[in-house]
Amino acid sequence: MKYAVLDFETTGNQSSDEIIQVGLAIIDEEQNISQVYRSFVKPGIPIPPFITNLTGITEEDVQDAPELDEVMVDLVPLLSDTVLVGHNVAFDFNYLQSALDKTGYLPFTGRILDTMDFLKIFFPSLTTYQLGMVAAEFGVEHERPHQADSDALATALIFLKCLDELKELPLIVVQRLADLFAGEDSDLGWFFDAMLQEKEREGEASPDGFVYYRQFALQVDDWMDIEPARSDLVHNPLKDVSFEQFMEQVRDRLKTKLPDYEEREAQNMMLSEVSKAFAEDKHLLIEAGTGTGKSLGYLLPAIYHSVKQDEKVMVSTHTINLQEQLRERDVPLLTEAVPFPFRAAVFKGRQHYLCLRKFEHKINRRDFASPKEEIITAAQMIVWLAQTETGDDEELNLGNRGGDFWETVASESDSCLGRSCPWFRKCYYHKAKHEAGVADVVITNHSKLFTDIQAGHQLLPGYERLVIDEAHHLEEVAGKHLGLQMKYFTVVHTLTRLFKDSKTGQFPNLRMMLDQSGSEKSGEWCSVIDGLYPTLVDVKEVWDRLADQMFSLMPERSDAAPGDPGQFVLRLLPQKRPKQWDTLAELENQIYVALGDVIRKAERLIGELKDDEHDFGYDSLITDIGGLLKDLATEREALRFFIKLEDANTVYWIEGNGNYRSKSLQIFAVPIDVSAQLKEFFFNKKKSVVMTSATLSVDKSFQYMIDQLGLAEAAEQDRLNTAMLPSPFNYREQALLVIPRDFPSVKGSVGDDYFVSTLVRSLADTATATHGRMLVLFTSYRMLRQVYDPLKELLSERGITVIGQGMDSGSRTKLTRRFQGQHASVLLGTSSFWEGVDIPGEALTSLAIVRLPFQPPNHPLVEAKSERLQQEKKNPFMKLSVPQAVIRFKQGFGRLVRSSQDRGIVVVYDTRILESYYGKYFLYSLPGPKMEHMPLEQMVPRISEWLNAGES
Fold first, then answer.
1. Residue 254: C-alpha distances to residues 268, 288, 290, 337, 754 (Å)
2. How buried is residue 700: exposed, middle or buried, by Cβ count under 10 Å (0-12/13-18/19+)?
3. Could you give the CA distance from residue 925 to residue 279 in angstroms, rounded to a whole number?
């Protein structure tokens, strides 16, 4: 096959836009790039400035360029008898067809392939498919991104990489792929068919390095063979070894492994505090800022303790990101540094693991809701199975629609066949569970800790000692899990997976099997299933009406982000129910009764099928249906609990957003205070709980956290140690905090014209002084929107890009990556950017905090907590609002200095930090940067002076 890899640069992406540059790389039959064609094209319209910015192509470049007619004379012969390839090929293909038409040629009728599809399928774990990023990842030269010839050449090299990857795959995988696309009359189908024929002609033996099972190639072997780390050692390697001696051995090994390893005072303090807490059976609150090396600070004592005492230590993180970092970076380092073998296992929530039985079932039955996208996802996963050892969805880049696909093949306790499953010995979830069982240290996350409590401690292996990292989130996660949170789609997904229409869904699948089974009872059973359909349709209609009416209770609000769940919020008070509540309760009762009926009949049917002596291979289906019925029962009870509005210790509310209306409805019922439960489940039960984070203290005191987490009793009984570690950074040298003391103030979440224009001007001048590299944190999305357009306009003249959360598409990670990839840019973010964003080094020089991050006082949970404090005669503002805001402020400040080489500026535009009686709590809680306040006009000269002094 010969491939022509095509790329156009154009004046925009409308049909009226014109081509300004052509790049074409020809890949010959031997898979060499035999020719690269390039040419500018003279457009009939001017090139917009943003295209010149993006591509670097100017009016001068194209003024003497050939016309489109002349270029096509060269291009058309190169395209004959080739397969057309492009990165996001539809764009280039449309321009090609229009150019052929304009210049009097026949349209292109050959095959068309998209490297985006190839990357998704053959490199399922790539985090991005953006051409420049992929080229960098693959080490492919790509000198001039967004110039057609450079793009075409980079795309051709990436395409060849995909073909190489395909060659390495076992025959069985290529057969599966060809089979998957066979029903589709598509060019991808044609391509895989051709590749399969070629591979079959070569007739090679199956390559080693794979496990072949049930027509799949896997990386996972029987997990039952996994043994504890020291099963062959007779003696405990730590017998008669003190923690200090153990640490000496570790340090020696770290020094040989890492030539630039240096001991850090704060890390040594942390090591001794954690090991002391373990040894004395005490709890510990320990604040450790960025750069302490806190993961090693708790992992080493955890390993020492678990191996010496032969008891498991549990480590819990808030984010999956940190869990991954421990798995990818810290554990491998410690495996080499610790002088004896140990096991650290990562164990996540069950829904993160693929259920191989469901996946096999789904692709064998071609059970695809939207075939075009889902076939690509299935292909991606077939290749991934030959690569993954964990079956963990974090390894997969599933794209937007892939999440729905994953839901149908994720592992679930209610639909697990356990030992009777043909996949049991290969099962990723049971493997992870077994690994956690034989591990010394288990790394899980806060969510799983609470799911385990709700499941009666059936999920996690038993543990007496627990380390909670990112502990400032513990209370919030506890509330979510010990309470109730349900979305409109929670119910809809369960209903449609049981029955979407007479052909799709698990009931129709079962009916089809019964029909073909030839069992004498099948007629009777089919009519039971037919009788369930109308009830399920009714339930869906009533649920739609209920969601609609619930949504209409909410007051209109316009100050939140599109897609931001904070758009509409309504708290529901048990003693003051809305007057329409009786109508809602009636609808809920209809749902309750109807679902009860469906569950009863379906469970009886399933029981009969299980007892039926003829097994027609229903097992797998019956298990899945049983699981979905359990989900329905749970949802039915949750809805009833919510509609009753009875519990005085629970705060009830609903949320939704204006774009998706009732489809975005979420209902919440969360305990007002979780401290009693935390005390019961953790601090009274466990011997030692270590809580750490960069932000646990407020004004150098831990009292706020002690109250929130239910640690007061432990403190009174002298079972709680606390420690605040010194920062390893020299903040006085590395960070300057500036407050413009005459800055206008603002009421509420929206700024007046004077405030906005002053802010935009000041941000633009500061960004110019710092050459972009600036993160601006807002507390309201509405204000971010007010600033975005005028700031973008001002800075585009100065060559600085503005990226706005919610304004530019992409997740937080994607926006952060774009910000890091561009030399001069300003990133505007709201709530989720205040923490967890890691932008080390040169990419970030200045941080602007527009308002102090107080939570909106009218949020139902904040409101309920405040009322509770008032009843106790305490000041809710000082006891709750200020500490919460200080912790968030410290998180925001922590974005700036991420290493001992970083230097940077923080500008706080909120003058309350100087003028109010509570402002000092914010300033005192910071780790000692240089602080100055001055009139606004002196600010930028001072910033420039400080930055220049650092450079010299």
1. 14, 21, 21, 6, 57
2. exposed
3. 31
For 155, the token pair is 């795309």
The residue count for the chain: 952
> Domain containing 765: what range?
731-949
Give CA separation, 29 vs 160, 269, 322, in Å. Answer: 12, 64, 46
3-class SS letters over 683-751: HCCCCEEEEEECCCCECCECHHHHHHHCCHHHHHCCCEEEEECCCCCCHHHHEEEEEECCCCCCCCCCC
111, 79 in Cβ contact below 8 A? no
pLDDT single digits (tens) 571-608 = 999 888 888 899 999 999 999 999 999 999 999 999 88
Shared domain check, 742 and 613: no
792 and 905, same domain (yes or no): yes
Residue 918 within a domain? yes
Is the domain of 500 the same as that of 636?
yes
- The separation between CA 638 and the C-alpha centre of its own chain, rounded to angstroms, equals 27
Provide the number of structural domains found in the chain: 3
Binding site feature residues: 288-295
Choose the final residue of a domain: 107, 138, 168: 168
Q: Are residues 906 and 779 in the same domain?
A: yes
pTM of the model: 0.85
Q: DSSP letter at 743?
A: P
pLDDT band, residue 561 (cuts 50/70/90) = very low
Runs of H (alpha helix) within 440-499: 446-454, 474-482, 488-498
User: Is 920 within the bounds of a domain?
Assistant: yes
Ordered strands of the 735-740 beta sheet:
801-804, 825-829, 774-777, 846-849, 904-908, 735-740, 930-934
Q: Residue positions in the annotated binding site for ATP?
A: 288-295
Among the candidates 604, 620, 641, a domain finishes at: 641
Give the 3-state DSSP-derived string for 860-873, with helices as H, strands as E and coil as C: HHHHHHHHHHHHCC
Of 364, 356, 365, 353, nearest to 417 by C-alpha is 356
Please give the structure tokens belonging to residue 447. 């969510």
Residue 840 domain flag:
yes
* Tens-digit pLDDT profile for residues 126-163: 888 888 888 988 988 888 888 888 999 999 999 999 99
- Helix axis angle, 243-257 relative to 294-309, nearest 10°? 130
User: Which residues sit opposite 48 in a β-bridge?
Assistant: none
Residue 853 lies in a domain: yes
For residues 931 and 813, state if they share a domain. yes
